[in-house]
């Protein structure tokens, strides 16, 4: 449960359940739904039962897409994995696996908390409706956000052709690429390390079995062997809890791995906005030049009209005057457009950078805490190891 | 068990292996002989070395007595095996080891010997000891070659492992009350290379050994009929023990393998944090800290695996070989008993033969050859009586042999069990201690890191409710 200053509701994703139903192509499918419970913050001590409704993963995706489009200057928190991708062997990659579902539940709750604690997003109407209204989908579609979404092609095109993006955004883009690479690698290696550690611990379980069998044929050593065997079993079993805790750490890293996508999205939006500004400014410059040529009569740029007029004779003064009028109008519009785009771009850069600073602080805090908790986990693992082997040593002493 | 030996044992002997025990040679006259490297050992004559023969129980007991408590301060012989060297000849390449002996025993002329021996020589010694004392438990030698893992004979680790096993082999024999008195053992420790070669050529030849083997095979096929209960119990134990120790050997080797693979992955893990720190500002210090911790834990893990390989693996492997030795010893004891039983049966048959009133064929032949039937029968009786007397003598000897073999084995069995318990207990103890040490060191590494994090209050900003 989370409470916070900005948001009036306490949110939790309490449960997960399997449902069957027909999908869009009328085929049977099994899917998981998650129970969202909400309760007014001040109702904490009054024991009021929370409101609740069920949501599928795809609905969360829809909400997030809406937020991305509507608030392009915000680094929007990521959702947990759709499919289990970086796993070590004991965890199944099956979406229906209860451990995976549980971790996803936690991830979804975390997502909602992130949004609820965001100074801008928490006030969004659709977000509130998502939490409280069953038929929210109609309303989100009504916002027409899908039409507002920038096409991927447009964004890629802008990224290539933009001339003067803000240096900070370029840097941020590089940083998010680096972070993505390094976190992917880290998560992969960590999974392999976990795998190997699992192997080491589990083989010790065999000691337990053999010691027990051996103790049956020994007189003096029997007791010592038998009890040592029990400790070996305990040692082998202890790895399950250890690695489960580490999964939580891995999930924290994964969240920031997925955050890099959101960072890149903000950078892309900036590039697009900047590009559009540049295009409009270029257009204005073009038009200015055309006017100048028209006024001074010199042709500096090649144009078909210019050529034809040379070939077929000059325009009349009235024709020129008409053209000039049009151009003047276009120039005025152009200048308006440039002013608008400039404001838009500045506004974007300003608000985006505020959110990026907020994100950076959040990231530094969260990851620092994660690393500390990782150290705590290692310490706990070492303590368990000391205890088991000290006990085993006692037993061997009695042999 | 401590042994009292006819020779003088210095009263000031201590538990630790003295670096130079010449100072304790209070009772010896020939100070000139006290060289550290007695390469100039001259032999009086070849008569000093008797061909190795099974000695009767009586003479053995005169030399060495058994006592219940073994005190290590009665140890009067110290042997080390070290300094492997490679020798290349036209035919082959082989390794020799230096065998250094320091002793106060009177049957040795000098107090120190240094010789070089190769694996073949150890094999020879083992064979001689087993021949002479077929039901004593001789500590196993390391294997000739390791089949799995394709270890090269001249690989450093292999040589070191072998050296340690050879060292243990000789020391076990030195500790054994009966085996350590063996003439062959003495020759092994003290003779120069060419002397040893000469000595080896003496003793029962090839044919007589073949005869022994044939008899042994015949006896084992026949099988023993009335094995005493206690030996059956021992055999059952050995079967089970062999299984268990084999399993432990495999499990331990598997652990070593898994641990090594874990170490490999861990070695890649730390550097990834360092890589990450390159992209961060606020987090850089911390990330480098974590990387450092992981690297230090890597070193500890490496040490721990090394300890396992050096301490537990060789001991378990030794006892796998011991189990095979025990099985062979039990078989040999059975064979000795089988031979005795066979001779007894032959005696019974002969007696029946002799006491039979009429012997059809012999009688008929005798009468055909013109012999007096009475005379023929009398001659036959005499002949059989003679054979029966011979048999009875043989049987007496065999009976003694069986009794000696059984007693030797019984005595040694208790001894072996105690050593086994001691060896395995100490190996497992050492492993457990090392593991505790390993986790304690890793704990310290991470606690230091944590401490460094918590003493940075500048990083703790006031947080509004954050997720």
Automatic annotation (TrEMBL), chain A:
Name of the molecule in the record: PX domain-containing protein
Species this protein is from: Oncorhynchus tshawytscha
Keyword Coiled coil belongs to the record: yes
GO molecular function: phosphatidylinositol-3-phosphate binding
Cellular component, GO annotation: early endosome membrane; plasma membrane; SNARE complex
Domain PX as annotated: residue spans: 12-137
Gene for this chain: SNX4
PANTHER family for the chain: SORTING NEXIN-4 (PTHR46596)
This protein's UniProt keywords: Coiled coil, Protein transport, Transport
Domain of life from the UniProt record: Eukaryota
Keyword Protein transport annotated: yes
Cited CDD domains: BAR_SNX4, PX_SNX4
GO biological process assignments: positive regulation of autophagosome assembly; protein transport
Pfam family, one: PX
InterPro entries per the UniProt record, alphabetical: AH/BAR_dom_sf, PX_dom, PX_dom_sf, PX_SNX4, SNX4, SNX4_BAR
Coiled-coil ranges (or none): 317-344
Family: Belongs to the sorting nexin family.
Automatic annotation (TrEMBL), chain B:
Pfam annotation, one family: PX
GO biological process terms, semicolon-separated: autophagy of mitochondrion; endocytic recycling; liver development; negative regulation of apoptotic process; piecemeal microautophagy of the nucleus; protein transport; reticulophagy
Superkingdom of the organism of origin: Eukaryota
Family to which this protein belongs: Belongs to the sorting nexin family.
SUPFAM superfamilies found in the cross-reference section: BAR/IMD domain-like, PX domain
UniProt feature coiled coil, ranges: 381-408
InterPro entries, per the entry: AH/BAR_dom_sf (IPR027267), PX_dom (IPR001683), PX_dom_sf (IPR036871), Vps5_C (IPR015404)
GO cellular component: early endosome; phagophore assembly site
Gene Ontology molecular function: cysteine-type endopeptidase activity; phosphatidylinositol binding
Gene name linked to the record: SNX7
Keywords: Coiled coil, Protein transport, Transport
The name this protein goes by in its record: PX domain-containing protein
Residue ranges of domain PX in the record: 75-196
